[in-house]
From TrEMBL:
Protein name: Helix-turn-helix domain-containing protein
PROSITE patterns: HTH_CROC1
Pfam families: HTH_3
Gene3D superfamilies associated with the record: lambda repressor-like DNA-binding domains
Transmembrane segments: none
Amino acid sequence: MGDFYKRYSKIRGEDHVQNLQQEGQIAAQIKTKRQKLKMSQQELADLAGVPKSTIGRIEAGLTSPKVETLLKISKALETPFIIDGTSDKGDNQGLFVQL
């Protein structure tokens, strides 16, 4: 954990910081997969049936998507949605939510 996160966790709590980091990892996975598929945010939004602004806010880390939204996005990206309680993501072929 970086120095900033250590200091911030003393203020907000370690659980809060871990949740922020996990949300950031999920957002990065979505953006990376979308870009790998050469898909625009609008194209992903259309396929997932959500507004483009939702995709933008998720990728920017401004919102925490509901599980329903994550499922729609994973289907649109044709990648599995995996809820995994471990920190080892193996081959990293899916969108991971760490509990």
